[in-house]
Amino acid sequence: MSLAVRTTIMLVVAVVISLVFWWFLRAPEPTIIGPSSSPSSRADTRLGVRVTVVEPEAFQDRIFVSGTVIAEDEVYLRSEAAGRIIDLRLQEGTFVRKGTLLAKINDADLQAQLRRTTLNLELAQIREARQRQLLENRAISQQDYDIMLNEVNTILAEIDLIKANIAKTEVYAPFDGMVGLRNVSEGAFVSVGTQLATLQNLDRIRIDFSVPERYAASVKTRDVIQFTRQGSGDTYTAVISAIEPRIDPNTRTLSIRATASNPGRRILPGAFAQITYSLSEISDALLVPAEAIIPELGQTFVFVLRDGVAHRVAVQTGIRTDTHVQITSGLAVKDSVIVTGILQLRQGMPVRVAQ
């Protein structure tokens, strides 16, 4: 056999062997029927949800709002008369008692008028006494005596007017309090209404704040609130003393005022107050997360898991917080309320509790 023929035979054999080997590599592996392919091992296609079990718990309906601290009594000390200050007793940051003279404006002209009018009064009173004797002796008419008596009364009224004007030149403390920063100096000329300083009673303080309109029926005088102030970790208590008898139409809020003692005068007017107001307390409230609530056409629903099936249940709601809603009817203790997958749920839909 020639060399060419042997070479050709060897090439054919090599090709056949290569084809057989390739066919074995491409052949699929046999399917093994066993327990792993049974229907019970198939993936669970039910919607996975999370649930919360309803349990009675103590619950406080609280409002968290901000307010402003103001002094129990506060006034701007102003001048009622124009003139030069001749005596100034406003010591900044000092405590003064009610009735203390704080400032005096020059009243020399008024004092001169008072002396002159007083002398006129003395003369008129002497004349009136003489006229009275004459009237008793029937030497003059009643009309003549009445004219003289009216002159005396007119001078008395003038004296009262002068004394009233003199009183306007003196500024007294209207109550016990702390003097603030003064705006004038002794010797300065002031006009009517010039602000001299402030006076504040810091023994007690007031806290002004507002609550949303929906809480108006729950707010009562003599309720106790707690508040904190910036820069201090202390918690203080105050008592509601007054409630505005109208709702603000612009903000739809109700204005409230509370009062508190201020030991050591540590809380200053104008301070920011963070207020906690407890409206009511329920010992056995049923609460569900807010995301479980479904509002629809004026009604409220939740989905409850029973025997692996989602049931749509109508409920009545009560107090709401940022995270939870009180259920007043429609649910029972130990009900499992679905809190996730709400948009995909349908009545009677099979679900499973996600791990």
Question: Would you mind describing this structure in some detail?
Answer:
The protein has 355 residues and is of the alpha+beta class. It folds into 3 domains: 49-59 and 283-353, conserved putative lor/sdh protein from methanococcus maripaludis s2 fold, CATH 2.40.420; 64-72 and 202-281, Beta Barrel (Elongation Factor Tu (Ef-tu), domain 3), CATH 2.40.30.170; 75-195, RNA polymerase II/Efflux pump adaptor protein, barrel-sandwich hybrid domain (OB fold (Dihydrolipoamide Acetyltransferase, E2P)). The chain contains 3 helices and 20 strands. A 6-stranded antiparallel beta barrel has the order 3-10-13-12-11-14. Strand 17 (309-320) and strand 18 (324-329) form a beta hairpin. Helix 2 runs antiparallel to helix 3. The chain is elongated and about 175 Å long. It starts with a helix and ends with a strand.
Q: How many distinct beta strands?
A: 20
Task: Output mean pLDDT.
Answer: 88
Instruction: Count up the helices.
Output: 3
CATH homologous superfamily heading of the largest domain: RNA polymerase II/Efflux pump adaptor protein, barrel-sandwich hybrid domain
Distance between the termini: 79 Å
The second-level CATH architecture of the largest domain is Beta Barrel
Low confidence ranges: 29-41
Radius of gyration: 47 Å
Number of domains: 3
CATH fold name of the largest domain: OB fold (Dihydrolipoamide Acetyltransferase, E2P)
Could you give the order of the helices and strands?
Answer: HEEEEEEHHEEEEEEEEEEEEEE
User: What's the main sheet like?
Assistant: 6 strands, antiparallel, barrel
The CATH class name of the largest domain reads: Mainly Beta
Q: How does the helix and strand content classify structurally?
A: alpha+beta
- So what's the overall shape? elongated
